[in-house]
Amino acid sequence: MISTKYFGLGLVLLVLLIQRAASATNIDYGVALSKSLRYYQGQRSGKLLPTQSVQWRGDSGLRDGSDNGIDLVGGYYDAGDNVKFGFPMAYTITVLAWGVVEFEQKFSSKNELENALEAIKWGTDYIIKAHPQPNILYAQVGDGDSDHACWQRPEDMTTPRTSYKIDAQHPGSDLAAETSAALAASSIAFAKSNANYSSLLLTHAKQLFDFAKSSRGLYSDSIPVAQKFYKSRGDEDELLWAASWLYRATNNGSYMDYIGSVEDTGDIRTSFSWDDKYLGVQLFITKMVLEDKLAYDGNWADYRDSFEEFICNLVQEGSDNVKRSPGGLNWWQPWNNLQYTSAATLIATIYSKYLATAKTSIDCYGENIRPKDLVAFAKSQVDYILGSNPKNMSYMVGYGTNYPKQIHHRGASIVSIKKDPTPVNCQEGFANWYNKNADDPNVLDGAVVGGPSDTDEYTDARSNYEQSEPTLTNNAPLVGVLAKLV
């Protein structure tokens, strides 16, 4: 790759695009957007809608919550397993709603707004059920260890469906705040089409934020079974994130006062993810500064400076650039890297919009980064994911012809219950399906897998879960980016 020490960002991106021009010419962002939303139908738990288009799926988890006498039917399975993890699910809903809030007209122009809102509502309907009282929130259904010990369709589950909650005595301010952010962002997304539902979401969002502030503590400490899978590292970012969304939803200055009262601005982050929302907060404050609603001084300046340093690192013009594969993919870690790539790409895409509105750019150590440069960066990452890469492989299942065919996903890898209703027991699934060296019998359209290594290598095998497992969090940021690019 050409060093940015001698060439500007624009030239580097141009070279990358030229190198992959042949495959990039066939990329259809509209098709990818449709499929990325369709993926969430494949992850649904509960009683499916008559309009369900992913026909190989059936009803499942219909007794969820019964162990605690509460209806927890619905929501989304997390990844290739059958557990409903509340922390990444809430983040997923926040990010899906964020994409709609920023690019609503783009979704509408492609007739995807209704599908996007439906994907959000499947999650928010479940969250409302999971929040039966102001200071109670159900955080998880199913146990990761017992679930992962079996390979079964969700329709056949024989593993325990234990439900776990946080409350004042067992706090989870990180989870409560992230769930508040999800509902506040969703309330904005639904404001035009369903005012009553929007108001209901906002009521729950306010209650959850108050709960988070009054009962501090990490949810994964209160619910130890979550620690191996989604252990939280802190709650300050989620509290700030929730306050940011509540301010956007209400224009109530008390939420800005809360942000202003917190000294920790997050410093320079390395990623945006289900466990680290500081970049989202920094972007929100930067937006407010660009709009002259906040002065560029003190902590507000720290937020913006830290955020723009991340952007510089992201586009390879910073002091600590994000690692990039030889083929041009921004890369963070071996396990499920594309969740970080897609999240960072959404951050850059939204910032390009804010910069364009403010008619400005940012300076990265003497290199002028304009809105169109950030869009070009986003396009380079999306194009890579959709097949413009050294392996000419799309990492979105069902997009194109060369995509992962043996993904680490129970439902996709086992014959549909609609074709063969014979129950698949716990270990039989491993023997007859997991270890079967054959393409998945069901195509989980739109699923974005973990993705390739830092050398652009990928092994299409169910056992290669670090690379081949799709998750809710992989897709969510990409939905908004695709809407922008169509």
TrEMBL record:
<feature type="active site">
    <location>
        <position position="408"/>
    </location>
</feature>
<keyword id="KW-0732">Signal</keyword>
<dbReference type="GO" id="GO:0008810">
    <property type="term" value="F:cellulase activity"/>
</dbReference>
<feature type="active site">
    <location>
        <position position="469"/>
    </location>
</feature>
<dbReference type="InterPro" id="IPR001701">
    <property type="entry name" value="Glyco_hydro_9"/>
</dbReference>
<protein>
    <recommendedName>
        <fullName>Endoglucanase</fullName>
        <ecNumber>3.2.1.4</ecNumber>
    </recommendedName>
</protein>
<dbReference type="Pfam" id="PF00759">
    <property type="entry name" value="Glyco_hydro_9"/>
</dbReference>
<feature type="domain" description="Glycoside hydrolase family 9">
    <location>
        <begin position="29"/>
        <end position="482"/>
    </location>
</feature>
<keyword id="KW-0119">Carbohydrate metabolism</keyword>
<dbReference type="InterPro" id="IPR018221">
    <property type="entry name" value="Glyco_hydro_9_His_AS"/>
</dbReference>
<dbReference type="GO" id="GO:0030245">
    <property type="term" value="P:cellulose catabolic process"/>
</dbReference>
<keyword id="KW-0136">Cellulose degradation</keyword>
<dbReference type="InterPro" id="IPR033126">
    <property type="entry name" value="Glyco_hydro_9_Asp/Glu_AS"/>
</dbReference>
<keyword id="KW-0326">Glycosidase</keyword>
<feature type="signal peptide">
    <location>
        <begin position="1"/>
        <end position="23"/>
    </location>
</feature>
<feature type="active site">
    <location>
        <position position="460"/>
    </location>
</feature>
<keyword id="KW-0624">Polysaccharide degradation</keyword>
<dbReference type="InterPro" id="IPR008928">
    <property type="entry name" value="6-hairpin_glycosidase_sf"/>
</dbReference>
<comment type="similarity">
    <text>Belongs to the glycosyl hydrolase 9 (cellulase E) family.</text>
</comment>
<keyword id="KW-0378">Hydrolase</keyword>
<dbReference type="InterPro" id="IPR012341">
    <property type="entry name" value="6hp_glycosidase-like_sf"/>
</dbReference>
